[in-house]
Amino acid sequence: MEESRRSSGKCQKISGGEQNMTSVDRLSSLPDEVICHILSFLPTKLSVATSVLGRRWRFLWVHVPCLNFSRNDFPDETEDSDISEDDFTGQTKYSDIIHRVILLHEAKRMDTFMLDFMDCNEYHLETWINFAIKRNVRNLYLDMDLPMGIFPPRLLFTCQTVVDMRIYRCVEIRSSLYIHLPSLKKLYLYDADFENDEALPHLLSGCPLLEKLTMSVHLTEKEKYLGCINVSSPTLKTLEIDLLHIFEDDIPDYRILINAQALRHLRMVNCHLGCVTNLANMTSLAEASIRVEGPFYLFVDIGSNSNVVKFLDSLCNVKCLRMTSYGAEEVFEIGFAGSIAKFGNLTKLELELSDEWHLLADLLEVADNLQLLIFGEGEFDMVRYLLKNSRLLEKMEILPLDDKSVPNNLSEGNNLKMAFDALERISLFERGSTVCQLAFYSGERAAMASNSRNWSSS
């Protein structure tokens, strides 16, 4: 970095008829610090490759504050070779390349360290992570398939500077492990191993500033699942839980406990809603997304219906609610049938249901301030249901989502044709209101039609 910068300002004039084009090397005139910042947005493979551009570029990459190692950058691992501009061409083992790059790296601080790798030994793993932590790493992403019994070093859980940590598969959380992550605000755990039910609360207690927690837990073996998912944090604002289980006859006996007074965003995927046994103080919750798929019995059983009702009641303060279900709509039906809660703050409702559209009626009765209703698959069935059962409806406006796959010069004509086709189809639906008008908007233009015929309501 001490090498003097050479702002060559080389220009080349290119004659083209009456026009002269001048090509200026503006990149070389930039300070080293700016170039390193630009290189930080590239994968490390490309950052190192810039060393062949000239003498000044030869070692600029060693000062880039971001290292991004991806298994996709290495097609094969063959025989070893000396490190050179061919470092990232598959001529050496992946682990050796990473190790050499780290040994040559001279940045005093580390903004991002990403390691997406399949195979390494314990020594390499500890060396790489210690390297990042000693340089005050802020964003740490690990995605590794480690041999049995090998886990990241304990120093990982006492990093003073990490703000965003994402760990895929390669970590074991123990209740006896000392955990102190004073700066951590975002934590993503994918298929982590938990020693016992106390391990997760123990982990969260060591993260005093945590604002976002995302967990993806694979429940494939009953011996390995987390029996109690206990999320307790006074600072948590966003919680995302995704449970993936593969059981044909039953589901594991687990519980979900949530105690997060500051929680504003909740997302739950494939969670057994009957197992949500405690939702303490959810008055701050503003947005919730609930997705259930598969056979109905996976999500509700006899004796757990009251838990489903309590869970849906806890969402009564949300402003935005998204509910998705394919094959388990009865979960929501049971919950709202037994609920007495009013969704007075709800202004946006998004539904994706394969059946049971009458559930919408239950929601509309308790959501007096609803402004926006969005639905996806089966949209014509939804429109049919609304028209038939809305006896006081005066006007229905339909705004399709933009089709970004259609070129701009073709989208307007196609969308207008689709609007008329859809409107023609919908206009034949039975209506409960004799004064209802239909409006189908497509971009800035609208195809509008109304039918003054009297429609019978049954």
From TrEMBL:
InterPro entries: F-box-like_dom_sf, F-box_AtFBL13-like, F-box_dom, FBL13/AtMIF1-like, LRR_dom_sf, LRR_FXL15/At3g58940/PEG3-like. Signal peptide: none annotated. Residues 125-242 form the F-box/LRR-repeat protein 15/At3g58940/PEG3-like LRR domain. SUPFAM superfamilies: F-box domain, RNI-like. Residues 27-65 form the F-box domain. It comes from the Eukaryota. Gene3D superfamilies: 1.20.1280.50, Ribonuclease Inhibitor. Pfam families: F-box, LRR_At5g56370. This is F-box domain-containing protein. The lineage of its organism: Eukaryota, Viridiplantae, Streptophyta, Embryophyta, Tracheophyta.
